[in-house]
Amino acid sequence: MLLQRDMTADLTQLFELYYESLVRMLYRRTGDRDRAEDLAQETFARAVAAPPNNPRPWLFAVALNLVREDGRRALRQGRRLELLRSDDRPAEGPEEDLERNERSASVRAALATLGERDREALLLKAEGFNYEEIAATLGLSKGAVGTTLARARRRLVEAYRSEARGKHVAS
Amino acid sequence: MSHLDEGTLHALLDGELELAEVREIQTHLGTCSACDSRLQDVKQFLAEADRLVGALEAPAGSSRARPEPAPLPSQPLTPREPPSWESAPELLLPDPPDTAGQRHWTRGVRWAAMILVVFGAGRLIQAALRPDKPRLELTSRDLTRPSNPPAAVSQEDTGKPGSPVARASRPAPVSGAPLGKAAAPARKTVVTQPPPAVVDELDSVEAAAGDLGDSAQDSQTLAVGRSDAAAGQSTGDQDLATREAAAAALEELDRERLRSRANAATASLPPPRADVQPAAEPAPAPRTLEQRAQVYLRIGLDEAVTQLGRPVHVIEAMTPEFIGLTPGRLVPGADPNRPVVRVVYLDRGRMVLLDQQRLRTGQAPGAAAGNLRWTQGDVMLYLHGDPGSDVLRNLQRRVR
């Protein structure tokens, strides 16, 4: 069933405000642009079915839940590796592209070493969420957000450095 | 103060701490080299982490075009192509959990196709059962035409282009046998109704009706019109009434279906906005003095002195209601790094504001300075509020 026209205005506004940010966060989380867009669509569809009062944390919380569900299903179906493919494959093109892709793969691998909550807090912060919004989205207390982000940032950087060192040694 | 934990330092760098906390931490950092060194560490991690996350951008050209919510029709859908990745995808309702993993656009197409089939079938049935107005008009014309006695019309005549029956609005010649078969049920009904005296005439009329062949209804009406108008008309009326009743029932079903669909769609709508029903909205609460004074943060006298970097000026013999901070600059020469300290008074219910802000070193107050804007040392002052300028000038003389 499709939506009524008078809902379209609200929906359009939500799209305008949050779609790009949501897709970007989902892309960073999944590493697959198409999946990110599909999940964003699904998120907005759910927003239509049950319009949220506080849309931004709600949309991102639903999107992250969808990612988790999707990730679990993918794990069960044994296509985990496919989730990490996307543009990590060496591209045919200028050296800058290759370098950028390698860097993205390293960052994504480092991100994958983080705990679920740490990773999500980091991605939400990158989308401009303040601590209160992060707390609302992830179900944390506001006081715990600083600690969570501190741990996430430190682990990400350390994992990335370790990854980079490993690649350097391997090559 | 104990050493600062990493979370607090991140909150500090993220700008999430209150002003008082910031001041406290700054004081501590000035005296604790360990925490200061840790802060530098945290800054590096924070910057590096932001840079790494920022590097996870989709490569240009690898993604679909940014979708927009497509305008959604409230009427039944027209057939459409499956959405391509380049076009704006439409929003679909969530799917049952067991199919959540499938591609959304294929589900959308399935939904649309199902709705189309249901609506199309309903329309077709309704159209088939509803009596056709043009056909009824044609029948009545034929009935009232006096120069075409159907009894004189033979089966051979119907084949001739100039025959009366052949002229009767038949778009293309059709052979008699199959049409006669098609009209058989109606003919049978008519034959059982009339009295024996009209059987011969009825046969010839039936033959003509079979050739006419547009429909069983036409042939039946013609036969009845020429043989036994009363009996035939009665049967036709019953059929017509049945069909009309069926059509009305279908229309009612259609309306019911539309109502339930509309209810289902509007059930998920957000509650009506407050501005739609201004009458039901409660009267707004009166603004507090703090709101009227447009102070974003109330501070104490000590903090005001710190913020101003100079002693705070007050109006002699008046007790401030409170002191607060307000954004902006009093004059172009004011120091943008220092907020405006606003001392708020109430003079017989009227709000009086004494704003003060440091000027930059060696900076003249600028052209904005006037009677009620003046400098004392390197502090710019501005007295304003509800009272008139005469009252304010009197108060100005008491500013210390």
Overview of this structure, please?
The complex is a heterodimer of chains A (171) and B (400). Chain A has helices at 5-30, 33-49, 55-76, 80-83, 95-112, 116-126, 131-138, 142-170. Chain A has 171 residues and is mainly alpha-helical. Chain A has two domains: 1-83; 95-171, Winged helix-like DNA-binding domain superfamily/Winged helix DNA-binding domain (Arc Repressor Mutant, subunit A, Orthogonal Bundle). In chain A, helix 1 (5-30) crosses helix 3 (55-76) and helix 5 (95-112) crosses helix 8 (142-170). The longest helix of chain A has 29 residues, at 142-170. In chain A, 41% of the residues are buried. Chain B has 400 residues and is of the alpha+beta class. Chain B has four domains: 6-54, no CATH class; 74-84 and 107-129; 133-246, no CATH class; 290-396, no CATH class. Helices cover 48% and strands 9% of the residues of chain B. Chain B has helices at 6-13, 19-31, 33-54, 104-129, 133-144, 155-159, 164-167, 176-182, 184-192, 199-212, 216-226, 229-267, 289-293, 301-308, 389-396; strands spanning 297-299, 322-326, 340-347, 350-358, 373-376, 379-385. Chain B has a six-stranded antiparallel beta sheet with strand order 1-2-3-4-6-5. In chain B, helix 1 packs across helix 3 (33-54) and helix 9 (184-192) packs parallel to helix 11 (216-226). The longest helix of chain B is centred in the middle third of the chain and has 39 residues, at 229-267. Chain B is elongated and about 105 Å long. At the A-B interface, helix 1, helix 2, helix 3, helix 5 and helix 6 of A face helix 1, helix 3, helix 4 and helix 12 of B.
